[in-house]
Specification:
alpha/beta, Rossmann fold, four-stranded mixed sheet, 4 helices
């Protein structure tokens, strides 16, 4: 995903970062840190969130509006929660959304209700591709190479 972020920056496409924290994911802990090579640079906005949906009780929609964004490219962590909730919320708010296949992750939650991580990621990709339509907006799943800036 580092390459995708670098391509967006080179094309002067707004890069907006979202970082989750809550009672289980505490600021400053190793699990809270950005993956290597990723994180805000310069004046890139950082949206802090406490719910799965990155729009819920945050400034994300205002930040997107200020930059004239109508189409979002989504990558990130916790496919079955944060990615899915944000993906639905974006399309319902009228944004076209491109979910980057292979650009979101989940954990191996052995013994939980979740199937294996690859199955979770595949289901969320399929949801973006086949179930994300709303009047005036749509979602889709794209490969990193298909993202055009």
């Amino acid at each position: 995903m580092v390459d995708l972020v670098e391509r967006a920056r080179a094309a002067e496409v707004p890069v907006i970062w979202v970082q989750h924290h809550d009672a289980e994911l505490l600021r400053g802990t190793p699990a809270w840190q950005w993956a290597e090579g990723l994180g805000p640079v310069g004046e890139e906005p950082l949206v802090e969130k406490s719910y799965g949906d990155a729009f819920a009780e945050t400034d994300l929609e205002r930040i997107l509006a200020e930059r004239g964004v109508r189409e979002t490219v989504l990558v990130g962590a916790v496919s079955e929660q944060c990615i899915r909730a944000t993906m639905h919320s974006a399309v319902l708010r009228g944004y076209d959304l491109a979910l980057v296949a292979g650009g979101h992750t989940t954990v191996d939650a052995a013994g939980s209700w979740l199937p294996d991580p690859e199955a979770v990621i595949g289901v969320v990709d399929a949801m973006a591709e086949h179930g994300m339509q709303w009047p005036g907006s749509r979602g889709r799943s794209v490969t990193p190479e298909e993202v055009g800036f």
